[in-house]
Amino acid sequence: KGSGSPSSAPSARIILRYYASQPPPERKVAILGAAGGIGQPLSLLMKLNPLVSRLALYDIAGTPGVAADVSHINTRAEVSGYASEEQLGQALEGSDVVIIPAGVPRKPGMTRDDLFNINAGIVKSLCTAISKYCPDAIVNMISNPVNSTVPIAAEVFKKAGTYNEKKLFGVTTLDVLRAKTFYAAKAGLPAADVNVPVIGGHAGITILPLFSQAISSSDFQSRQESLSHEDVRALTKRTQDGGTEVVEAKAGKGSATLSMTYGGSIFADACLKGLNGAPDIVECSFVQSSITELPFFASKVKLGRNGIDEVQGLGTLSDFEKEGLENLKAELKSSIEKGIKFANES
Ligand code: NAD
Ligand code: LMR
């Protein structure tokens, strides 16, 4: 078929087959906190990701078992476990992407900021090691409070002279998953037809889902309009309280791990695809930003060979979203400042 078309010429077919058969480039991913509630399933999903050629699993407790277990899966990534601080350098060396789910999770009644006293120090020491052993790596920060741990990481990297604002990401993908899921269920739409950017930060009212942008296709416009203002208000609140919903349901046994792992793996995969030159990779993330007056802000980000290609604008906001944006600024600003202060004083 199509004997006249250039793409079907034998030489073009050979070239296409040649490129299709090339394995993706070598990529090393390190997970810090790999034996935890998020770390373990994330180690599994990264082991299943064909873009990963080396997987370094680091934790201060329980790493050998997780590494041995995951290493028996017959996929591309070669797995190594690192179990003590002396081995952290080896775990990090040569990493393209470092994912950090190390630290304590919430219990019922706590805010994410209540984790600051323990997790800020953990993140600071891990980022100090990153600046020494893999200063060019992309960092995916999962540890809470993300609104403060990302600024802490930035300050640590600045002090070490290794800061690259294009390579530091607070992982907020779980907020996007929740917003899409809750919206699709309420609107009676297939989850795959819904895409909700979530902007701001990752705690309470700083999480701002843009439900007015949930559906781009005009076919669905009428159904979107059928959601009342009250519905949108309730969906916004549920998305903002999504983490607390899980913390309460787990009743003292931690916070979201499985949905977080799915979100974390989507985000790490997007970073790897970007590094490998795949086009049009866009995810929401909490990054250094000039979209608002705040120095860090979550919005849609285009990923490329050097990390962030472009921090994208917010698009058109509804009046409710404009109000939400103004209302979140004070809390987000103070969480960012708390992180910066900690990194520079301690
Ligand atoms: P967890 O307690 O099950 O696991 C944490 C792991 O970190 C443990 O294995 C622990 O040994 C390890 N750890 C502690 N100190 C360390 C250090 N210095 N170096 C390396 N590893 C260290 O907790 P979890 O449920 O996996 O949650 C981890 C973090 O992720 C929490 O702070 C939680 O709030 C956060 N979280 C963030 C999001 C998000 O959307 N960004 C979602 C869910 C959870
Ligand atoms: C979440 O959103 O589920 C996480 O940030 C964990 C938490 O403490 O809520």
Question: What sequence of helices (H) and strands (E) makes up the elements?
Answer: HEHEHEHEHEHEHEEHHHHEEEH
Ions and ligands: nicotinamide-adenine-dinucleotide, (2S)-2-hydroxybutanedioic acid
What is the residue-averaged pLDDT? 93
Estimate the strand proportion. 15-25%
**Whole-angstrom Rg:** 21 Å
Helix content: 40-55%
The helix count comes to 12
Q: Which residues form runs of ≥5 with pLDDT under 50?
A: 1-9
Shape: globular
Strands of the widest sheet, in order across it, are 3-2-1-4-5-6
Largest sheet: 6 strands, parallel
Taking the alpha carbons of the first and last residues, their distance comes to 69 Å
Q: Given the helix and strand composition, which structural class is it?
A: alpha/beta
> Care to count the β-strands?
11
What would your notes on this structure say?
By secondary structure, this protein is α/β, with parallel strands linked by helices. 45% of the residues lie in helices and 16% in strands. The strands form 3 sheets. It has a 6-stranded parallel beta sheet, with helices on both faces. Strands 9-10-11 form a 3-stranded antiparallel beta sheet. Helix 2 (39-48) crosses helix 11 (258-275), helix 6 packs across helix 12 and helix 7 crosses helix 11 (258-275). The chain is globular and about 55 Å long. The termini are far apart. Mean pLDDT is 93; it is low at 1-9. Residues 105-106, 112, 144, 174, 242-243, 246-247, 255-256, 260 line the site of (2S)-2-hydroxybutanedioic acid (LMR). One of its GO terms (cellular component) is mitochondrion. Its EC number is 1.1.1.37. It is an enzyme of class 1 (oxidoreductase). Residues 28-170 form the Lactate/malate dehydrogenase N-terminal domain. Homodimer.
